[in-house]
Amino acid sequence: MAAVMDYLFQRSLDDLVKGLRSQAAASGESRYVAKALEEIRKEIKATDPHIKAAAVHKLAYLNALHGVDMAWAAFQVVEVMSMPKFSHKKIGYLAASQSFTDSTDVLLLITNLLKKDLSSKNEFEAGMALECLSRIATPDLVRDLTQDVLTMLGSSKLYIRKKATLVLFKVFSKHPESIRVAFKRLVEKLDDRDSQVVAACVSVLHELARQDPQPYLLLAPELYRLLVESTNNWLLIKLVKLFALLMPLEPRLAKKIAEPLCEQMRRTSAKSLVLECIRTITVGLLDNTEVVELAAGKLQEILAASHGGDGEDDDPNLKYLGLQAVLDLLPVYPQLVTQSKSVIISCLNDVDPSVQMASLRLIVSMVSDSNLADTVQILMRYALSAEKIFCNELLSSILSTCSRSFYELVTDFSWYVGVLGELVRVPNFEQGKEVERQLVDIGLRVESVRKDLSRLARDFLIDSSTWENSHIHRVLAAAAWIAGEYVELAGDLFEIVEALLQPRMKKLPPSVQAVFLQAVLKILVHFASAAATAVDAEVVDKFEYEEIKSNGNVADEEQAQEPLGRMVTLIRENAGSLQSHVDTEVQERASNLFGLISFIEDEAGSGEMLAGIREAFAKDLGPVSQFSQQRVVVPDGLELLDDLSELKIVLGDDQLQDTELLPESSLLFTHKKEEDTAFVDESAGLLEQHRKKNEKYYLPKETRQEEGLLGAEAPQAQPAAADDNYKLAEELLVWNKPKRPKARSVVVKVTDEENDFVSVPMTSKGALKNSVLSTAIRDVLLNNKSGSHRDGSLPESSNAAQKHHHHHRRRHRREKHPAEGGDLTAVPQEGLDSEKQQDQGEQQQQDQEKQRSKRQHHRKRAKSPLKFAPRAAVVPDFLL
Fold first, then answer.
1. Contact, 420 vs 456, CB < 8 A?
2. Which pTM was predicted?
3. 8 Å CB contact between 720 and 384
4. Which of 602, 620, 638 marks a domain boundary?
5. Which of 24, 204, 316, 774 could form a disulfide with 169 if both were Cys (CB 3.0 to 4.6 A apart)?
6. Burial of 755 from C-beta contacts in 10 A (0-12 / 13-18 / 19+)
7. Residues 462-488: pLDDT tens digits?
8. Chain centroid to CA 282
9. Domain identity same for 464 and 393
10. Helix, strand, or coil (residue 435)
11. Is residue 788 within 8 Å of residue 794, measured between CB atoms?
12. Helix (H/G/I), strand (E/B), else coil: 548
């Protein structure tokens, strides 16, 4: 009675789902799940099969949708699997397929249960057992149940034969030794009377061939017959995929299936089959012009239909596969891009991210120096209104395409510098690191564009609205470096210094602040040297110096020092606090800057000294190969240690321990406790003396907390206007018209070639397993016997071997024990001649037996319908 009441008041799976949907907040949902788990733990221990099965069902649902662990209920799942009622058994098999792993202990308990259900008269129970085996198969389970699966291959029921055929893939994967018993049974299913079983067999062969397709060349005749005769689209798709794996191994096979592929594309209305045929054509038939033109025409029809506006053909899968096929056909049929470029461009605005990325890859692959500007314009236009992730994919594609092979596609670097400036102002910009690298790299390599870079750097530094985005900080560092490195092109130096030392600069990362201070240092050196020696007339005129003497001295020294004094004052007011910055690098750069200011004030009349300092920054920097360090010649007499253990030779065993025995936190040198204490006391005393002597160079003990990254006074950046019109005119992309507004600038490259280091991959465990599996399949298809040699030759017959061995033993005995009455010379000559003739006759008989056995072996191999031979004789009747 109690069990009946529990069953009546037990919450079903429908009640659980409705309760979860009623929980609006995430916290309420988690509490509801926890409460449901408590109920399940109680219900799953019940003896009533209905209550136990319902509890397992709810637990499986929570495991699938909410990730609830159900390993603790493995035994109860086995109990439900063994229930006689089909509805309960189905729940148990579902839970087992979902939760059992190779480490589940109760797997040992279900072997007999699976055997029983595999032989059940109810085909659906047998089907459940097969499906469960395919999901939880282990080597032990497969070894014990392989014979039962093979028995089911001969079942009269289609449902059973199809599932038994499919489960063979998991059987072979988990237990390769079963191939020698079961693979022939699988190949026999290619002749099954039902197309669904044949399709299942081809699917298994395709999955196996993906690991190593070589052995399956022997099945090419049978597969070709199915390709020509079958009308099942699913079977045809699998066959075409399988031939795509086999064609690279046998060139004649590609010529053989060219006509069937074309025939399938002409007569079928299934776009998925057409796309698969096109993909197979791109694998091995790109040299066949007629086939490629047919594939291109079909592909153009599919792309046009997928963008026709009707919801029936608007399939994102077909769009993606179509774009991928266009990318594969592009090398041999580039006019296809011109015919479908409007469709390809419109896919950049597709709702499916995969279609967007496929379209982007295709557009990037079509870029040349003649259409680079138009392509960048289109990508920038879509980036303004794209989502954050795809927007940065667009920007990254622009940067990588334009910088490819040392900017080989860029003919106008002034234009490209402007493009970099526009990229930074895109609202979702996150490519600061790459833009920084390219700005510096272009400055080093292209001398003619440095003036444009200086103007762009000035705009970045003055426009503080661009400083809001943290990803632009790296770009600001590049702008500061350009302003300091090419200071003679910077323009108004007061304006640049004010921009570099504005209050917002202190909110930047320390690494960027250090670059800013170094730029100020270079500008100050340039300005002070020009003011003292008047060697730079442009700078002097810019700050309205009154008169320049004929010998290079300024007429009125006080007036000449006035602009310099104003710059020094500007630096003192804005950068003085940075001398006590928490970051050591910023401290050092600020100290160097103020040290130079002190020198200028003390040696104001020494123009030669300032000119010498300016000369230190005068040499142009150039690009350096990343492998330059490896090309440095080792000086004579310098011995380099390849291993730290060799330091023992220099330091001795008592001073150096084996580094492998030391933890990461251990010191290289070991000392006794007394020596450590003395060393620490002495170091502390020296440190205190140094602090007293150089107190002004130490940080104050009071530490202040840094403010936020950006101040409240920061102006908000204005988002760029997005263009809603995505119907771009086709004339935006002129794929073949050359556009060279002016001669390409000289790009400096590293003189030495960079080495390519190729690492040899190690053989993985999975590769070894696949090798064993392929070897077993090859042996089965070749009908190799265990006694045959690996080269295919048979061993010598036992009779011939025994006669040969007996002959040698007889001759050895005759030589070792001569005839009685004297030595060998006493034997009659007639006896020797007769014995010699007998030996020659036996030798000829042995040779004849060897030749006969070889001829029999070759005839046997020639009669075999499945034989593995060199390429010229794989399937002669099929390919000739």
1. yes
2. 0.68
3. yes
4. 620
5. 204
6. exposed
7. 987 778 788 899 999 999 999 999 988
8. 23
9. yes
10. helix
11. yes
12. strand
